Amino acid sequence: MSKRLTCWIIDDEPLALSLLESYIHDTPGLLLTGKYNNPALAMQDLVNKKVDLIFLDIQMPRVNGMELARLVPPETKIVFITAFKEYALEGYRVNAFDYLLKPVSFDEFLVTCKKAQDWFDAVTKTGPTRKNVPETDVIFVKSDQQIIPIPLKDILYIEGLRDYIKIYTVNRSRPHVILESMKNMEKMLPAHLFIRVHRSFIVQKNKIESLNRNRLMVPNREIPIGRTYKQRVLSFIGSK
Question: Which DSSP letter does residue 192 get?
Fold first, then answer.
C-alpha cells in the first residue's frame, strides 16, 4: 500500500494557495499538513517539522523560493510553482522534484503527484539513499521526464558536465543524462562501492582495471585522477 504523502503549500497569492489546497484535498494519497502565505513562517517550521512534499512558489516578496528550497532537507521533495518556464532549469539546480506552470491545471497536478508517489514508493521499497547500501540495490533517477531505476552493480562511472551528469552503465551504449550535481550524486552512492577520483568523475571501485600515474582505466574509458583526489585513490589501491 502506498504511503500517504504529507504536503505543504508555500505561496503568497491567496488564489493560488486556495487552488492548490483544493487539489490536495481532492487527491487520494495526499494529506495537507501546512499552508503558508509567509515563507518566513515556513522556514521556522522546517526546523522542527517533517514533510514529504512541498508545493513552493518561486516569486515571493522578501524570500525567493529558490533560496528557501536550499534550506529544505533532501528527503523532502519540492515542486516549484511558477508563471515563468525559464525558472525550470534553475529549479532543477536546487534539486527540485518537478515544477508546475501557473495557472496549474488539475490534470498536470495529478501527473506530478503520481510521479512523487512512485518515487516515495520506490524509496520505501529499496532505501537507495541509506548508508551501506547492498550491491543488489538501485538508485532512482529522473531522466526524460520519468523516474528510472539503475542497479548500482551496473554503474561503470559517472561524469559531471556543468548542470548535468552522465551515468555510464554496462550493456548500454549511451549514458543516462540527468539534471543533478556531482555533490548530490556522491551522497546518494554508497562509499564502499564508489569513489570520486576527479571533480568530474566518480567510478565504481570494482570496475577499476588498472592505474597508470594520474589516470585509471575502467571498461572502455580512461579516467583522469584529480590532484585533490589522488591520495584518496592511492589509499584505496594500497588497501587492496
Answer: T
